Amino acid sequence: MKTRSWLYSLFAILLAFSLVATACGNDDDDPGAGPAASSDDSGDGAAAADSGDDMADDSGDGAAADDSGDGPAEDAVVMEEIGPPEDTVVTVCDAPSFTQIYAKVMANRGFAENRGFEIDFVACHSGPAQAAALVSGQVDIALNTPENMMGIRNADFDVVMFAQIVDNHFFDIVVSNGFGEIDCPQGDWECVMAVLNGTRVGVVARGAAAEQIARQLLDSAGYDPDDTTYIATGLAGTTLAALSSDEVDWAITFEPGLSTAEVEGIGYAPFRLRGGDGPAELDWPSAVMITSRSYWDANPNTVLNYRAAILEAMEWLRNPDNRDAVIEEMLGYLGLEADMAEIVFDNNIGSMTVTAELDQVRIENNVNYAVGRGILGAAQEFGEFAVGPGIDVILPAALVPEATTVGICQAPSFNGMIAHIAVEEGFLSDRGVTGEFIQCPSGPANAAALIAGEVQFVGNTPDNMLGIRNAGFDVVMFQQLVDKHFFDIVVSNNFGPIDCEQGDWQCAMQELEGTNVGVVARGAAAEQIARQLIDSAGLDPDGATYIATGLSGTTLAALSSGEVDWAITFEPGLSQAAVDDIGYAPFALRAGEGPTELDWPSLVNTTSREFAEENPNTVAIFARASRQAMDFMRNPANREAVLAYMRDFLSLEGAVAETIFDSNIGSLSLNGALQPARLQNNVDYAVGRGILEEAQDFDDFTVSP
Asked: pLDDT for 208-249, tens place per residue?
């Protein structure tokens, strides 16, 4: 329920003048969540966040407001100036951790209810999951590290921070007892880093937040970070195992690993980031609350009431009279034993926010850190990413399109629905651009239409786009649409089962050695992928027989008749084969399985360089509309609407449509940002397969709208 208050109008006027391994990611060592990608600590911008603390299930005890300790804080600013919330049901990302226990306290102890709203928790157990949930509208509010939030902004999502949660750090250092005692005064981080220089450090995942902190510690102490060996040790349990086994000498990790290491005699902390020790470059709050700018614009009172309730919950948590009740909350929320819950509480309560207000100076220090570590391409001003009373908001300038009508290549496919929905839902026209579709049913038709200027925008595989460039046409890519693959493998049921573990692509290819494979057309993308699979498995690609079976219908017929034993094809053939019991997938390229040579995004938006240079705003608008369409498709609330589009646009419905949706929705790009390393991997693949005569540099074939 949304009601407009007098303050809402005031905020609208002010704004006119002037959103996981994450900060709260999966870190309870749940065996179902692997140490790497799921609690992803990968620093690629939109998706990047480390796990925050200990996690368990997200169930609350539904307790009514407790009468122990202090009631809601009488904060003068928030109590007197905030009107009633416009949105009375706030969806919030939930990843059980000590950092996020404030939200359970808000719900269970009545602080949210007292301020006129209730919290609907949505499980977001990784950094990418939190980012995806926020930008697609599944949740209204999420928790993140400030540099990871800036990374989301760097990928062109207009998310903003509005409150602080952890004033110091939740990441910290543990030195293995096996390494021995360090002869430095407690807290002397520079002395400690001198001893640890050139050793082995465990980090959650390579290249992301934990490694960046380790590198900054070494860098700030005057040492070359590249002299140290970084080893991905995953979440708390596997990190402790690595410390115990002498695989690493020290680690940057989080709760419950930090407390468990000391309790079980595995390691010790020679200084404490959580206690404020460390270099000036790391002096920043480690967790903030974020939302989308659009949600803030529409619901300022809700957001400010949420921030006020955070402060009230924090004061309740810190009140010594409530210690037993806090431990009870932790037992139910985090699944910890009572003794460990008390230790985690004692080690971390001092880092939790005292005011909930954003510390501008220290957050700007985080921006400088993020730029210095290469997490951000360029600095952003505080007013660009922060909102709230007293903050001078800097609104992004509206894009004015140079070309107001554009031609778009279209072919009925699941991936083609991105552009279709961008037009049909008005995401493009709302920005002042009319999209006109021209049917391009094949790769050659795509190329011909783009080269001839019949269309301005084409979705293409990166290797096919590079092939157009190889022919002398200056086309460029500007946005990623599908992060994995839309081509995949189907093995005919007539061939029989393969005695390999699901996902073991090398074993599967050995079983398929020397058989008949169906490809869309001889010499093109499907055959090249089939040949690469065979080649990467150490077999001779010329030992297989390649048969052109065309599109989905004729490929399924060839699989059913025994003409081919397996095929490389795409939707709807992949899902239709499963639904109609024609074939099965022993591994899934769409899930990221397969050789490293095939680790590249399979669909990018392309245009001519001439159009991009003359119409940069139009290109940027098309990219934003495409991203909004992908967010729309990902949002569970829109599932039925997307299935209706599939019925009308693809003539698919029922089990096949649902299977196609479920099998492919996870491959859509989270933020649309081009990934240089993986696209360069595609260049290497294209050269290796003879698609390109010679390598091209990323900057030669891309533009940034």
From this structure: 788 999 999 999 999 999 999 999 998 888 999 999 999 999
The span from the CA of 19 to the CA of 157, in Å, is 7
Question: Does pLDDT of 42 surpass 70?
Answer: no
The 10 Å CB-count burial string (b at 16+, else e) for 174-211 is bbbbebeebebeeeebebbbebbbeebbbbbbebbbbb
Q: CA distances (Å), 105 to each of 112, 164, 332, 498, in order?
A: 9, 16, 11, 51
Residues 150, 158 contacting (CB under 8 angstroms): no
Q: Which domains occur in the chain, in start order?
A: 6-169+285-385 (3.40.190.10), 405-483+601-701 (3.40.190.10), 488-598 (3.40.190.10)
List Cα–Cα distances, 412 to 92, 440, 552, in angstroms.
36, 9, 12
Beta carbons of 387 and 297 less than 8 angstroms apart: no
SS3 call for 11: helix
Q: Are 458 and 415 in contact (CB under 8 A)?
A: no
For residues 134 and 69, give the distance between their C-alpha atoms in angstroms, rounded to a whole number. 34
697: three-class secondary structure by DSSP: coil
pTM as predicted:
0.70
Q: Any residues with CB less than 8 A from the CB of 523 and at least 6 apart, and which?
A: none
Which one, of 262, 177, 209, lies nearest residue 50 by Cα? 209
